[in-house]
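Input record, target 12 of the design panel.
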């Protein structure tokens, strides 16, 4: 039997992670919540450190107009997703990350729309643009996958029944990246924007302790959502440590026109000595990127080859296997976390112990042991509005010295299951 690698000095115990990959139905929030509860019913208290649900987990994703999504927008601490996440977190005694469509607060400012190709000019005018081109292929992924302050993005919360160990209701506000602009996000609020594509963090105490708003919007998001003000992280109790959250498109170059090697989200994680990156997703199957593909099919069992937009043959899609293209792409987009060229070899900034006990200022120490970062992607499966999603939820670990990307666990494209992974 092969010996397990030693636990890094900043990780005193293994991390137990679960991702709920399933096929939510558009606009069926209550039914989707019941399905998640049923799927997680066999999980026992104390067996997890982190449970992750997909992007917009209970609402579904393919909303084409503001009026279509309006009935499904939620309050970040009392909405349907928050209620479910708090219930699961309290029962399982773990942290829960879940994506949801966040409603604007009552005092959200509305400004005149800016003339731009990226914004809608009418309340119910959907925006349709071409999806991204096929990504470059990462060389190789090892492994088989068998195995207080007040958070500025949260409105005032209802009175809490308890408090955290540090005596605060919410964790201190984390820094953001890209830097917040003096006038807010680069795309001003318009009449076509009715909320944010967000993800919340619920604690074992059954409280919402963090809220993140998607920074880079996909074209579907731009039908109704406003961009967030920048990437964020939280220092959570051991063994989670410093946790950053991104949402799907945040992994891509901004608007697909930013330089590939800007690595915006990964650079933020490296700069801020993040221990774990959690990304709820509604990531498309790679063949959805090809206009010649059968993306209008509702079948999850199509396995024939096709021709991509570049004229090359697209390999058959096996619904009972993960999307290797997507796994490679995600790893490639996180190059600063595992490529010695940009270097991410330090364990943490001075004063940060990697276990959520505190954060210090300053650059990581060059003499510190190589840092290993945990990447968690929780994607959905199935089809919605003729669009096929890639599934392939996974947990990877990444380090730069020696350079390595290890696949700890992965789902297939089409399966619905609670994926369990233990990172040692």
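The sequence produced for target 12 reads:
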């Amino acid at each position: 039997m092969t010996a397990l690698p030693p636990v890094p000095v900043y990780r005193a115990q293994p991390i137990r992670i679960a991702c709920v990959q399933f096929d939510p139905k558009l606009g069926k929030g209550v039914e989707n919540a019941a399905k998640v509860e049923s799927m997680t019913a066999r999980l026992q208290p104390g067996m997890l450190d982190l449970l992750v649900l997909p992007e917009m987990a209970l609402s579904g994703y393919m909303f084409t107009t503001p009026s279509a999504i309006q009935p499904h927008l939620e309050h970040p601490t009392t909405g349907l997703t928050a209620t479910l996440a708090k219930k699961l977190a309290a029962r399982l005694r773990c942290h829960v990350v879940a994506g949801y469509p966040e409603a604007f607060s009552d005092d959200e400012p509305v400004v005149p729309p800016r003339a731009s190709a990226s914004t809608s000019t009418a309340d119910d005018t959907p925006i349709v643009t071409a999806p991204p081109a096929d990504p470059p292929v990462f060389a190789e992924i090892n492994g088989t996958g068998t195995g207080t302050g007040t958070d500025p993005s949260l409105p005032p919360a209802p009175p809490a029944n308890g408090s955290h160990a540090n005596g605060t209701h919410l964790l201190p506000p984390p820094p953001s990246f890209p830097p917040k602009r003096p006038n807010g996000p680069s795309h001003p609020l318009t009449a076509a924007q009715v909320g944010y594509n967000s993800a919340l963090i619920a604690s074992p105490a059954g409280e919402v302790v963090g809220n993140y708003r998607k920074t880079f919007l996909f074209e579907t998001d731009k039908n109704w959502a406003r961009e967030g003000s920048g990437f964020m992280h939280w220092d959570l109790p051991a063994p989670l440590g410093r946790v950053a959250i991104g949402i799907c498109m945040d992994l891509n170059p901004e608007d697909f026109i930013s330089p590939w090697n800007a690595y915006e989200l990964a650079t933020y994680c490296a700069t801020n000595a993040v221990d774990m990156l959690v990304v709820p997703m509604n990531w498309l199957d790679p063949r959805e990127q090809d206009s010649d593909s059968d993306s209008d099919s509702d079948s999850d069992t199509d396995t024939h080859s096709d021709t991509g937009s570049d004229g090359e043959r697209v390999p058959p899609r096996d619904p009972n296997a993960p999307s290797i293209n997507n796994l490679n792409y995600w790893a490639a987009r996180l190059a600063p976390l595992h490529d010695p060229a940009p270097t991410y070899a330090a364990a943490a900034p001075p004063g940060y112990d990697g276990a959520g006990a505190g954060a210090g200022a300053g650059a990581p120490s060059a003499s510190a042991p190589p840092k290993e970062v945990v990447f968690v992607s929780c994607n959905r499966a199935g089809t919605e509005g003729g669009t096929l999603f890639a599934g392939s939820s996974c947990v990877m670990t990444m380090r730069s010295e020696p350079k390595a990307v290890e696949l700890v666990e992965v789902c297939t494209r089409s399966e619905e299951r609670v994926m369990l992974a233990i990172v040692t």
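The helical segments are 29-39, 66-69, 80-92, 264-271, 324-333.
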